[in-house]
């Protein structure tokens, strides 16, 4: 009887470990469709680079409206927007001192 109880406990622990491990395997957000139209700088709050584990390299733009847009990081206007946002965040952080 003790062996049966021990076997059940071992199986439960193995099952929990397996399901917990599978939960964090993939990236949280990847892009498969991209916005091609240029977006106004004033409409973008911030950006996030998608995980390197995604099949497509992408930038997620966090819009003022709360939406997110996927854009290609190689596009000229996206590069300019990232530079603008980085500069804005650095100068904004310094102004609070």
UniProtKB/TrEMBL annotation:
> What keyword terms does UniProt attach to this protein?
Cytokine, Secreted, Signal
Q: Which SMART domains match?
A: SCY
Q: Which Pfam families match?
A: IL8
Q: Which residues form the Chemokine interleukin-8-like domain?
A: 27-85
Question: Tell me, which GO biological process terms does this entry list?
Answer: immune response
Q: Which CDD domains match?
A: Chemokine_CC
The signal peptide here is 1-21
Q: What is this protein called?
A: Chemokine interleukin-8-like domain-containing protein
Annotated organism of origin: Poecilia mexicana
